[in-house]
Design a protein that fits this description.
Elements (H helix, E strand, L loop, with lengths): L14 E2 L2 H11 L6 E5 L7 H8 L2 E5 L2 H10 L5 E5 L14 E6 L5 H9 L5 E9 H7 L10 H9 E9 L4 E2 L6 E8 L10 H13 L5 H4 L6 H7 L12 H15 L1
Parallel strand pairs: 2-3, 2-5, 3-4, 5-6
Antiparallel strand pairs: 1-8, 6-9, 7-9
Helix pairs in contact: 4-6, 6-10, 7-10
The structure holds S-adenosylmethionine (SAM).
Length: 260
């Protein structure tokens, strides 16, 4: 029972308790005075305390009312601005830019959270997160590997990413069942994310990975006939996992041009 608080599974609560790991994460973030930093899920403050010591003021988004009450008892409004509620619904565009987003994320909602953060990439300087190692592996995966999928393509389109280091279950109370990892994401300059219709690209990627065993001729038939595959120099017999992120941009741009 960390600090008298019963961890809530539904909020993905695994609290960091290893001071060496906490120090390593703060070193990776390298917070500086005057930066705009928002922490997702401050919990019992394992990262909040050292972040605050380095930067003087912090925005936090927390859903658990008991933890919010503790935060209010512990910190002044000059130290932390508390946004009560669901980070999945929070409009990060309302916070000052360029924003640094950090957090030991609730693992039960990690994928939708990553997609939500991606929609604010223009507003963000960088993001540093603790996630399940399996999710970090998927984020940075190369084509033709088991971990490669929709998450890899859509995040690689928007961010440069680096898997920094792994964190064992023993670094948390209660210990999660899986190994965790720290990942950093840097938004790419707008010129590097130049797909003409990103919503279309997202639909194409979802279809290509929806049924991994099926060929692209099958999964992308809504958009591409054999002549289109030939024009794109992509085999219709190939499967979604063989294409690189740039191939998906090419396909979406081709379909956009053809429809114009
Ligand atoms: N930062 C603390 C630490 O490292 O010890 C706690 C991390 S714990 C893995 C995840 C935190 O996110 C908890 O404080 C939890 O209450 C909070 N949380 C869970 N779901 C959330 C949501 N949808 N929006 C905002 N915070 C959430």
């Amino acid at each position: 029972m960390p600090q008298g608080h019963i961890a809530r599974k539904r909020f993905g609560q695994n609290f960091l308790s290893d001071p060496n790991i906490i120090r390593k994460i703060i070193t990776a973030i390298a917070p500086r005075a005057g930066e705009h930093i928002v922490e997702i899920g401050p919990g019992l403050g394992a990262l909040t305390v050292p972040l605050l010591a380095a930067c003087g003021h912090l925005e936090v988004v927390e859903i658990d009312r008991d933890l919010i009450a503790r935060l209010k008892d512990t910190y002044t409004p000059e130290q932390i601005t508390i946004h009560e509620g669901d980070a999945l619904k929070f409009d990060f565009g309302t916070l000052p830019a360029p924003l640094r987003v950090v957090g030991n994320l609730p693992y039960n909602i990690s994928t939708p959270l990553l997609f939500h953060f991606a929609s604010f990439a223009d507003h963000v300087r960088d993001m540093t997160f603790m996630l399940q190692k399996e999710v970090v592996d998927r984020m940075v995966a190369e084509p033709d590997t088991e971990a490669y999928g929709r998450l890899s393509v859509m995040l690689q389109y928007r961010f440069h990413m680096a898997h920094l280091f792994d964190v064992p279950p023993g670094a948390f109370r209660p210990a999660p069942k899986v190994t965790s990892a720290i990942v950093s994401l840097q938004p790419k300059p707008a010129a590097e994310c130049a797909c003409r219709d990103e919503a279309l690209m997202a639909r194409i990627v979802t279809a290509a990975f929806g049924q991994r065993r099926k060929t692209l001729r099958n999964t992308l038939r809504e958009w591409l006939a054999d002549a289109d595959f030939a024009a794109l120099a992509i085999s219709p017999q190939a499967r979604g996992e063989t294409l690189a992120m740039h191939d998906y941009v090419r396909i979406a741009d081709y379909v956009t041009t053809k429809a114009a």
